[in-house]
Amino acid sequence: METRKRSIVKAVTWRAGGLVVTVAVAWVVTGRADVAASVGILDTVLKVAAYYVHERLWARSAFGRPKPPDYQI
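Below the sequence we write its predicted structure tokens.
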């Protein structure tokens, strides 16, 4: 089972790469580093929160998990 801390660290490390890509694309489109940085930061904050919620919802789901045995010795 995923812990909350693990979900947070996974989300942050994944988004660090996404931040670089988002800022680069926004900079190419706008030609302004300040706007690109603002877009990148806002995008990262929102997506980290969305990813965390997504991970926690999946952690609650039994979908795809093997059923535990009725008893154990």
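The mean pLDDT is 90.
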